Amino acid sequence: MQNKNMKDFISIVDDNYEVYFSIGDKNYSKSTMSGRANIKSLEDIFSMESVKYISQVHSDRIINLVNIEEDTSKLEADAIITSLKNTGIGVFYADCVPVILYDKSTGIIAAVHSGWRGTYEEIVKKTVLSMGNEYSCKISNIKVIIGPHIHDCCYEVSEELKTQFTDKDSFRGVNLFKGRNLSLKKAIIKGLNDLGVEDKNILTLDYCTCCEKDIKLHSYRRDGINSGRCYGFIVKK
């Protein structure tokens, strides 16, 4: 893997698997005309046939993309899996966790949006299971990239939500909290480890969307309704 900062993206390249997370002021929100234009422009910038995204609803729903002509933009889900080449699949985020998965042995790629609800419902874990059950991926071959998101330095939650997480059997044995500050990353990695995904196959980009100083990232916790959206995606060339 090669990890480097580009002007407008953090990039990770692993052979013909390319992963990008947007940085800077550019807004990729699909709810605005300019945001959709920015998403469309990625096709030319990265020489892709198409860029796909979904209507994220903080669920544990996963869709499978099998036809490049399919319009996924109105499908309500928070994870997308495909085997298509030259097709970028990605998720929007402005504090929630973007997670990219790929298996070079089968050619399967996936993108997941995991906010606190998706993390609690273990959508990343369910996506790994779906890759295995529906695409015959071996868990030992799956690589995971956890992108920029709000970290426990900035993510304070309610006492009720803390109790919800600490009472769930899936998260026992790992300390997810500093006071009432939740580490979404630790919860996601716990689920991956429980499935057999080894730490050596998990790459974490340790940028907090809320307080990072070295690069610009959109943060809803910091900026409220004025926040834009970052876009993280993977393409198999």
From TrEMBL:
Pfam families: Cu-oxidase_4. InterPro entries: Cu_polyphenol_OxRdtase, Cu_polyphenol_OxRdtase_sf, Cytotoxic_necrot_fac-like_cat. One of its GO terms (molecular function) is S-methyl-5-thioadenosine phosphorylase activity. CDD domains: YfiH (cd16833). Gene3D superfamilies: CNF1/YfiH-like putative cysteine hydrolases (3.60.140.10). It catalyses: inosine + phosphate = alpha-D-ribose 1-phosphate + hypoxanthine; S-methyl-5'-thioadenosine + phosphate = 5-(methylsulfanyl)-alpha-D-ribose 1-phosphate + adenine; adenosine + H2O + H(+) = inosine + NH4(+); adenosine + phosphate = alpha-D-ribose 1-phosphate + adenine. Keywords: Hydrolase, Metal-binding, Transferase, Zinc. Purine nucleoside enzyme that catalyzes the phosphorolysis of adenosine and inosine nucleosides, yielding D-ribose 1-phosphate and the respective free bases, adenine and hypoxanthine. Also catalyzes the phosphorolysis of S-methyl-5'-thioadenosine into adenine and S-methyl-5-thio-alpha-D-ribose 1-phosphate. Also has adenosine deaminase activity. Belongs to the purine nucleoside phosphorylase YfiH/LACC1 family. This is Purine nucleoside phosphorylase.
